[in-house]
Design brief:
Blueprint: H1 2-26, H2 30-39, H3 51-61, E1 67-74, E2 77-85, E3 88-98, E4 117-119, E5 122-124, H4 128-146, E6 153-161, H5 172-178, E7 186-189, E8 197-202, E9 204-213, H6 228-239, H7 251-268, H8 272-276, E10 280-288, E11 298-307, H9 313-325, E12 330-338, E13 341-342, H10 348-361, E14 366-370, H11 376-381, E15 386-388, E16 402-404, H12 405-424
Helix pairs in contact: 1-12, 2-3, 2-4, 4-12, 10-12
């Protein structure tokens, strides 16, 4: 008898999934309208004011049966937690998206309306790829899943957050530290990327500032002075040796990077695979001196150091401090740090999402690390298995930012079906 019940339940779930698949496929153009409406609510950072776009999301979900709670953390930051609760206990799947965007640049070079314009199979607009298109796909999935909540086990939660462009401490970071339902058994981030390349981890980061002191003197009397600039340049040259730091990464992570390379580098540029496997050091600013005919008495520089899986913050900081200690008159301040973070590329949420991306798009998606930072790291550091699957960005951070409408519509379907599969364990 028990076997008969299980068979009947399995058949019912399969029928529900087929009905959901038909429903999302028939209505997927709604995602385009949702994305245009979100882009029409500007939220550039700075200042990163997310109140208006948060209100627009609330309006999109009104009457659907979801639960929405607002969390204002700074005067300009409004975060939302949206819940679709199922009929019985089960797992919680979280979707995450950030509401703030890059600022509008090269306004006179836009050929399309930065507040949203569909043309030639593309949707243009500021922040459409990073990441209001992804947020629209989440909203679309939530509306469909809410219609099934009387039959769903567990729940689906969406965290729509601000402050991501300024590192997320008052957005995703705040919610994970203060709102229990913002966490879950797994998380899918809609941050920019591609459904062809699912990102299961990110490099760590150290930001530092170097200060060098010297002794001013007229350049004609150089023997009386000590150049802070030369001291700084010597330290910079020495710190570049961090690029050769040995990396002891897990075999599955290294294999994923290698296997993904041919597909991933088509989207992210040649050399990405190498960057993912080594320490990178980038000096972003250098300042010093007063006049061309004065020996500089002060100079400073800032650097961005990215850490692959297999290297810790402590290891690199120890080397930084040892290097700087060898340079008289030079000091260092670490201004920001976080560890490399990753979820197993074989984790269930990665593979379920991969299966649905492949089925919907007719491709074989790959899994890889991500060179840039996202709110996904907050979830991984909180112990939540996390994967990034967003839209392929075109001209992100520049004029005529856009995404392809076919991919945008597909993403909404993929999210809905992946959530259904994950909650039902199928």
């Amino acid at each position: 008898m028990q076997a008969d019940v299980l068979v009947a339940h399995s058949a019912e779930v399969s029928n529900q999934r087929r009905a959901l698949m038909r429903a999302v496929a028939a209505s997927n153009q709604e995602v385009v309208d949702l994305a245009r409406a979100l882009v029409a609510e500007p939220s550039p950072y700075p200042p990163g004011d997310t109140h208006a776009v948060a209100r627009r999301i609330e309006a999109m979900l009104a009457g659907s049966g979801v639960e929405i709670t607002r969390y204002g953390t700074l005067p300009h930051v409004m975060n939302l937690v949206v819940r679709v609760r199922g009929m019985r206990p089960g797992r919680r799947l979280v979707f995450n998206g950030h509401l703030d965007t890059f600022p509008l640049v090269d306004a006179d070079r836009w050929s399309a309306d930065p507040n949203g314009e569909a043309r030639d199979g593309k949707l243009y607009g500021l922040g459409v790829s990073d990441m209001k298109g992804g947020i629209a796909a989440i909203v679309f999935a939530l509306r469909h899943l809410a219609s099934l909540r009387d039959t769903l086990p567990g729940e689906v939660v969406a965290t729509f957050v601000g402050d991501e462009e300024s590192m997320g401490t008052e957005g995703a970071g705040y919610l994970l530290n203060h709102v229990p339902e913002a966490s879950g058994d797994a998380m899918i981030s809609a941050d920019t990327g591609s459904p062809a390349v699912l990102r299961f981890g990110e490099k760590g980061m150290i930001w530092l500032r170097l200060d060098a002191s010297g002794k001013s003197a007229h350049a004609a009397h150089v023997h009386r002075g000590i150049s802070a600039i030369e001291r700084l340049l010597d330290a910079i040259q020495d710190l570049r040796t961090l690029r050769d730091h040995p990396v002891d990464a897990p075999a599955d992570v290294l294999a994923a990077i290698v296997n993904a390379g041919p597909v991933s580098e088509e989207l992210s540029g040649r050399g990405e695979s190498d960057v993912l496997r080594r320490v990178t050091v980038t000096f972003g600013t250098v300042q010093g001196g007063r006049l061309s005919n004065l020996v500089a008495d002060h100079a400073c520089a800032t650097a961005d150091i990215r850490l692959p899986v297999g290297v810790s913050v402590a290891q690199i900081e120890a080397r930084i401090n040892a290097i700087v200690a060898r340079h008289e008159g030079v000091s260092v301040e670490i201004t920001r740090r976080y560890e490399p973070n990753w979820t197993s590329p074989d984790h269930e949420i990665v593979q379920r999402l991969r299966r649905n991306c492949g089925a919907r798009l007719g491709i074989e998606p790959v899994v890889n690390m991500r060179v840039g930072a996202s709110d996904a790291r907050h979830y991984r550091m909180h112990g939540v298995p996390t994967v990034v699957c967003g839209l392929t960005a075109h001209n992100m951070g520049s004029f005529d930012e856009h995404v392809h409408i076919d991919e945008l519509c597909a993403l909404g379907e993929i999210y809905a079906l992946t959530a259904f599969d994950y909650l039902h364990g199928i």
